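Comment thread on ticket #2218

A.B. wrote:
> Attaching the input chain for the structure job we discussed in standup.
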Amino acid sequence: MTTVADAGPAKDTRARLPIAEVRWSTVLAPLVVGVVAIAAWESVVEAFDIEPFVLPAPSAIWEQVRLHGDSIASGASVTGRNALIGTLLGAVLGVAGAMLAGSFRVVDQMAAPVVAALAVIPIVALAPVLYSMFGAAVDTGRIIVAAVSVTIPVYLNTLRGLRQVRQVHLDLMTACAAKRWQVVRTVTLPTATPYVFTGLRVASSLAVIAALIAEYFGGPIGGLGKSITSSAASSNYPLAWAYVSGAIVLGLLFYIVTLLVELWFSRHLRPT
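C.D. wrote:
> Ran it. Output below, let me know if you need it in another format.
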């Protein structure tokens, strides 16, 4: 007859953050694909003599990156600062809102139409309105645009994670006379954390895109968005693509940093 003591330690059923072990193939495969794609791009442009205003060659873009590297880095710092502040602000609002909605049904019902409305607001319409409210000379409007882009996916994913908490676990904590903060720390947050980071990984890149697009409608001259439009307006298309490349690198940097933070949490959430 098997007793509880003989059954061995109970298995931890909490959700794991979806990060696989990093292998060389994981890093090498995308690099090989990227090199092949760039080589094919260069060959097609040369073979068909494509005009730069249609599609510049990678070699021409790289030449502009080499000549204007400092300007691209400066623009990335301006856009990245707005995107970073918007990401942090949007993440806090998204998680806090989801926790309120998960705790109070009336808040969930009231927030649903507001979230749906915010999710479909086009950035191209929101940015000019915010500039008329706060002025285009300050970064407030661009930060708000980035924050809105981050809040929605973080809110929805966090709320879904909070709803994955099993009632039996909550009942067990109640039977143990656990306080509310203990329930949140030991049950709610560990269950919802993978979903929070799923939203953050998506939102981190969206924040860069939102901050970039918001700069099209005015803002600092040094921002990547303004630099792209200025270069294209002066028919310097390789330089415009060089600034686009800077934006791509910035978006990848945001994604990788979020992924590393997620990996750190994944390791510290594992039971000892």
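A.B. wrote:
> Thanks. Noting for the ticket: The mean pLDDT is 81.
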